[in-house]
Amino acid sequence: CFNSGSPWDRCDFETNQCKALPEFSLQPGWIRRNGQSGMGPPYSDHNGNESAYFLSLSSEMQSSSAALRTNIFLPTDEEHLWQIRFHYWVSQMSGTLMVGLQKHSEDTVTNIWQVSGELRNQWNVNTITINSTEKYEVIFVGMVETQRQGETVAIDDITFSEGC
Question: Which residues form the signal peptide (predicted)?
């Protein structure tokens, strides 16, 4: 299901281009980097590659949140649910990652998944199925409460595909 690999539905952050996240390089608080950047963990992407790129919260953020917004997806129906799979790193003390859904007719973002303070510093993977009767955007929100060394939230390899 996720192996189609067509570029429009996969963001591995190896380049600055990603059709599903058209302006991720301009979204404040996030930085595209690799494990060799000297910015603390993670020291590799989710495949263990130190030179491969991912997104993480920039270390300039002082206890605040940063959002990452996809472009607009069309409504789903019973035959065409959408799935989003992504790899994430949430540092153990104060990191939080939330995924929200913003429907076209609503101003508010509905939280559909959240994780905080993972006990071990490592990459994890998650898949979310989305069901929306109207156009929608998906919003990733990373937060850190403290700027202690190594406190971060990172995202890698976001894949969007029709549910299978």
Answer: none
